Amino acid sequence: MSDLTLYYFPASYYSQRALLALYEKNAKFKHKVVFIHSGDQNDPTYMRMNPAGQVPVLTDGKKVITESDAVIRYVDENVHTGFLGKRSDEIKKNLTALADKYPDLQQGVSDPWLVGPRFTAADIALTTLLDRISFLGLAERYFTPEVRPLLYSYFKRLGTRKSVQQVRAGIAGIPRLFILRKLKKSSPFVVGALAVGIAAAVAYNIVNKK
């Protein structure tokens, strides 16, 4: 599908879930960053798409999908590349039932991902949670080689996955997004003066090198 557009903010917990789903399915989509700290989500045009004024929002040219769980489900059902597996709520229900019945169950610990050898919607949910814990500087409290070593190994594996790398790169690029936004909102004269200044500096360096 080539008409997909995701409205999101890179640091938003639920936006990250939607992004992971799209990246895992190798979906082609347009990126529309919503600067929630600047109030973009309260813009009338955006509010018509999502009256709750929240991110993410996914559109396909006809439908508007809000809530990250609904976005993940839509992507899984309509983007026919990649793999997400069963619905995350079904997986959560099954895993909870197993954990309650067999609290000491060790079967499957050799699998790289939560429910087997393939990365699924369940992993998306855990990935965003672990990344948020790490972002808050609390990783050493919850998973280290000594504290929950299996969870620590899982977190390290996440760092090798392309979709996770893409989401993390988006977070790291937030300062650049804010700079570009400010430049776009600046007066054309300010931008023009900046360009002239850069050109003058380049010319000065060229002359001095001769």
Oligomer status: single chain
Number of helices: 10
CA-atom Rg in angstroms: 22 Å
**Could you give the distance between the termini?**
55 Å
CATH arch. level architecture of the largest domain? 3-Layer(aba) Sandwich
Using DSSP, what is the number of strands?
A: 4
Helix/strand order, N-terminal first: EHEHEEHHHHHHHH
**Number of domain units:** 2
Proportion of strand residues: 5-15%
InterPro entries: Glutathione-S-Trfase_C_sf, Glutathione_S-Trfase_N, GST_C, Thioredoxin-like_sf
Protein name: Ganglioside-induced differentiation-associated protein 1
Family: Belongs to the GST superfamily.
Give your account of this protein's structure.
With 210 residues, this protein is α+β, with helices and mostly antiparallel strands. It folds into 2 domains: 169 residues, Glutaredoxin, CATH 3.40.30; 34 residues. Helices cover 56% and strands 8% of the residues. It is built from 10 helices and 4 strands, in the order βαβαββαααααααα. A 4-stranded mixed beta sheet has the order 2-1-3-4, with helices on one face. Strand 1, helix 1 and strand 2 form a beta-alpha-beta unit. Helix 1 runs parallel beside helix 3, helix 1 crosses helix 5 and helix 1 crosses helix 8. It is globular and about 70 Å long. The mean pLDDT is 86. InterPro entries: Glutathione-S-Trfase_C_sf, Glutathione_S-Trfase_N, GST_C, Thioredoxin-like_sf. This is Ganglioside-induced differentiation-associated protein 1. Belongs to the GST superfamily. One of its GO terms (cellular component) is mitochondrial outer membrane.
